[in-house]
Amino acid sequence: MNLPDTHPLVDGRTTNAPLIQAFRGERPGITPIWFMRQAGRSLPEYRDLRQGVGMLESCLRPDLASEITLQPVRRHGVDAGIFFSDIVVPLRLAGVDVDIAPGVGPVLGAAVRTSQDVDRLLEKELTDEAMAPVREAVALTVDQLGTTPLIGFAGAPFTLAAYMVEGRPSRDHLAARTMMHADPESWSRLTGWAADVTGRFLRGQVLAGASATQLFDSWAGSLSLADYETHVGPSSARALSHVHGLPVSVVHFGTGTVHLLPAMRSVGADVIGVDYRTPLDEANTLLGGTTPLQGNIDPAYLGAPWPVLEAHVRDVVERGRSAPAHVVNLGHGVPPETDPTVLTRIVELVHSIS
Amino acid sequence: MNLPDTHPLVDGRTTNAPLIQAFRGERPGITPIWFMRQAGRSLPEYRDLRQGVGMLESCLRPDLASEITLQPVRRHGVDAGIFFSDIVVPLRLAGVDVDIAPGVGPVLGAAVRTSQDVDRLLEKELTDEAMAPVREAVALTVDQLGTTPLIGFAGAPFTLAAYMVEGRPSRDHLAARTMMHADPESWSRLTGWAADVTGRFLRGQVLAGASATQLFDSWAGSLSLADYETHVGPSSARALSHVHGLPVSVVHFGTGTVHLLPAMRSVGADVIGVDYRTPLDEANTLLGGTTPLQGNIDPAYLGAPWPVLEAHVRDVVERGRSAPAHVVNLGHGVPPETDPTVLTRIVELVHSIS
Prior knowledge:
globular, two-stranded antiparallel ribbon, 7-stranded parallel β-sheet, 15 helices, 11% strand, alpha/beta, homodimer
């Protein structure tokens, strides 16, 4: 099964959008830009819409998820929408007892710690039927976006597994990394399950109209290269196998991953997202000069006076010229307290210097 | 002023202890080992002692701080005591309104955000008088330790400043890193103040009997190399200037710092502590093969079956042979849930294979 005739990459709406060109490794007429977490708490229109609506509910109501995805595209004139969702949405859709606690993050009803816990988890799966609200939200969004591509969103299996084993957000994911060494068989079954769930979640978004995808391995930076290659990379590759054969680029991103960049590419990524710690020219060297890059304005500059921020953005664009292609982004998500007018100004600046 | 005649490095008690030899770059007869956070929550005798006693109180009561420092030395037979304290203790001693909230960490009465906040902070200082309980605790401890050296403990100015600007623990220290770029003048005054406070705290421990020191820059890994060199390194160098001229080695440690190792050495460190993410032979290469290393058993292995853990410890010792000298440690602190008998077994193993 390939893409339907009405898909924006098939009817041609997004085929030559600057973002899609850059993800293919070309240099479009302008340097494309979008912001991780552009849809969300930095926007007053988002906060209005979320009044009295829980986070997961807002992800699973197609009208809301679509409108939230579109808000930053309208406001900032960015070159892509990123599907509004959360890393744990596919877990919820597969029947896992998980919610997002305000001010805390994802909290599971019961942490997955033992082989028996994994057995119980493996009875669940993400069905096509459960994906209906996601497909609907994507279709609604793509209809409105026109020639602006939508990027599909999913969390990588390690990050999903870390949430499931810890039961809540943690600093160093020690319980998850302990399972990896203490019970590698359970770890492998757990991450394999997570790979299929998140892979299907991503595939569903693409079939419904997304023109590219991004896999977020938020916590991969807590791993050594050896552990990544042995215990994590294979499940990320399995997740991405669900979109192989579909004509969409895959961006792969994590923070604190300077030691993992080539390994994160080798699981099947086309584009590497670089966090703010590693200058793009260095990242390009680490990757052998062959991979389109995305990034990496440091969010810590967003509160600085404009001349300081402008110089930093220009430096990011300049260093990005070393890579085969470059999509400007932040080197981490938009902080909630960001003044959104600053983001709009960055978009104008990046488009003007391209 | 140099060390008093009764200091263990002057009367010779610790001068040729394996730890001190290794820190000097020599290869002693056994490979020395200690554990970051060996004093603390993993020990039942510690939990007994802390019943009804707040964290900062336990650091500031000389009898308690000394006993807690000694407990793991007696139990595990490690090659050093690490002075039981907390990164924010010198702030409290300087009159800053800070406490350690159980399950949260350091919380300030008021975050330091503006130039005026920094002005008010600069009216405070760490006096010799305020250091009395620290000196007393160190003296009590050194009397009991005999030929086992005590390592003095302090947090680096960036990590202290991050707590002060955020007002509480945070994931990416964004408020602190924003001040760095938005108001570099206030940032510089703040970290300069923190450097003198933490430097005096370290110097006081050395004069009272510590035979080595470790500076913890827990959050340095959140920085790019450029930001570290411009906005952080100078204050760490200023902190360490307080112990220059004293005949003690300085260990410098942070997590997620693979991109910062040479920069963290260049502020005046003699030994680099390596976190669990970077194999010691790679760290040694990054440092040009000239620096004694400390580390880096991954705490995630502490819950694994003994043969798996043993193989990992042997691998760490083997990779450590590439460096000029090696002190075995964890690549992060002892997790609270660690079975302490496992730590004792690691000490026996490391001493047996040396």
